[in-house]
Amino acid sequence: MATPTGGYAVFAQCPVKTAKVNGCIYSPTTSGYIKIAKTEVPIVNKQILQGGLLRPEEEFVKHMAPALNGETLTKTAQKVPGGLAGLVECDKIKEFLLRISCELLFENGLTGVNAVTELAAPASSVVLNTAYEQLGVGTALTLPVKVKLENPLFGSECYIGSNKEPITLNLTTGATSGGPTGKPGTQSTKEGGGILVISGISLVSNTFTAPKATGCGLLGVLDGLIDEKLGLPSSKNTAVLNGSVEIANSELVEESEG
After folding, report:
1. How many angstroms separate the CA atoms of 180 and 54, rounded?
2. Most buried residue among 15, 47, 114, 178 by CB atoms closer than 10 A?
3. How far is CA 233 from CA 52, 147, 161, 218, 224, in A?
């Protein structure tokens, strides 16, 4: 398959041939943090929001179309400070085999825990409001997510949030009540004006809720311990996503394909 070239190469996952797609977006988050209840996870590994932008039915409001590779939001692991020790106390696990497994993990040094923020709804549920983004008011980006906790003790389905009960981030580039303040960023262009670049953008929210953990450990036996340790469910949560945004017309992206 032909792929975009030059400055348009970042839009390689944009579904330019999909009906109603008239734009492409590439937005890496390079720093910031997500704090759920008592635990703050810093963003140190770049996570990318990418895909197409559907022709707007309302001015300035753009819904996304899924990335060609299926990763509209890349599944990027971030280390949880404190690791397993910060989330689980082995001596509080009642199930014998699980308690022994926990102790063995500590003895073998397998105590690291990763948090992976994943999209928890179809790409069309991701909504960008370009006017609010630049004005620093209202919701600039709506992002429904779930957070996977990764450690051998937790199994493969340990999540905070789910497709049925997502963590909905209503992010702003403006101020939050009693929390962080975002930044609209600085606009520029490249490729002769064909690509809009917004650098130094900061999207923030402190109004989202986080439900109880599910699927952690064998038959979810660790759910309650994680809930107790983190303080779940919680309405006292904060997200700060710092990075940049690139947007281009899908026809220009397609024309660049080599």
Report:
1. 30
2. 47
3. 33, 13, 10, 21, 11
- Residue 167 contacts residue 140 (beta carbons within 8 Å): no
Q: How far is CA 53 from CA 63, 75, 98, 211, 223, in A?
A: 6, 20, 46, 30, 37
> If you search the block for the tokens 């990335």, which residue do you land on?
67
The Cα–Cα gap between 69 and 49 comes to 12
How many CB atoms are closer than 10 A to CB 40?
Answer: 14
Residue 44 CB: number of other CB atoms within 10 A? Answer: 12
Q: Strand 39-42 relative to strand 21-36: parallel, antiparallel, unpaired? A: antiparallel
Give the CA dihedral 253, 198, 147, 170, nearest 10 degrees: -110
Do the bridges between strand 167-171 and strand 159-160 make them parallel or antiparallel, or are there none, so unpaired? unpaired
Give residue 98's region: left, alpha or beta (phi > 0; psi -120 to 50). alpha
| Residue owning tokens 């179809």 | 122
Give the DSSP H/E element, type plus range, for residue 106.
helix 96-107
> Tens of pLDDT along 171-218?
999 999 999 999 999 999 999 999 999 999 999 999 999 999 999 988
CB 62 within 8 A of CB 130: yes
Question: What is the spatial distance between Cα 46 and Cα 63, in angstroms, rounded to a whole number?
Answer: 23
